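Readers of this paper often ask what the protein records in our data store actually look like. The remainder of this section carries one protein's record, kept here as part of the documentation.

:::
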Amino acid sequence: MLEYDDSFDENFSITDEENRVLLQGALIATFYFKNGHLQQKKQAVLHCIKQYVQQCSQHLKWVYPSFDTDHSGYRAVSGLYDFELDDYLLNRDEDFAWEFGSHSGATAEEASFFCFEGFSRAKWKPKPIGYFKVAFPMTWFAEQPSSFADFVLDCCRHLHPYHGYGGIGLVVSPNRFLRSAGEQKEFSLAMQFPGLEIDHPISHLSWVWNGIKGVNWLTFFDNSWLDKINGIETLKDNLDDVFKITTYTNGVLIQAGEKPQVGSVNHRIMPEKYSQLSKLLKPIRITTHSGIHSQGPFNREKFEKWLAKFDE
């Protein structure tokens, strides 16, 4: 029996009968990029990791890969950068994929709001795409000298992402069995809160080569997508002053309002700015995607409908 508080606040989480956290509400950002096998791209990923670790290292408890032949999953960490990700990434042969993760869960299998992860396909793959994802507690930046948007923009300036998004979302368990146990609640929350990001980057990779996944509070993409909507003037001419448009080398970041929103179907509250931006970017959004749940309700049909939620 799963239980959760119906209100979505900064401490929102879903637990099971053993009090293990299956889903955690958080500020999340996911960056998709091409050619993760290149040293320059790996250096950019490392820059973003170090910016994250500089703020949050004291909370991180687990890391993957373990760099331990006797331990195939996450292992415990006790201090800043004892997990040797620099050597792992920079020395990884370009003909092999790379993958890493770190988080603050009470156990290695639980979801948590301090986490980062990444993956990239090998050079020889037909579509060599990868991702980098971070999560913070929803109120983390209230007491920080910089903002969540500042962090995302800094990563954009270094990573030069193909596209991506940032806002309030759900962090899922790294354990596939616990992840499966939370699928029904994840679907229910997605139906209740239209602005909530449902994010399974490893599942999205096969589809986001052809378009952006969608929009959230922060939406960013490179100029190849900007060209397909007739340039930045399209954004400036169709978005009001509530939107903040920031350009960086070969890309643009769009902030939809002062604060992120999740909305509420129960209270008939829609994140109107998200909807406005989503409709404007419809020509470059994906419409095709497989299901993201192993057993739960987010099959192909329902997830594709979720992707188009702001079109109605």
The chain has a mean pLDDT of 91.
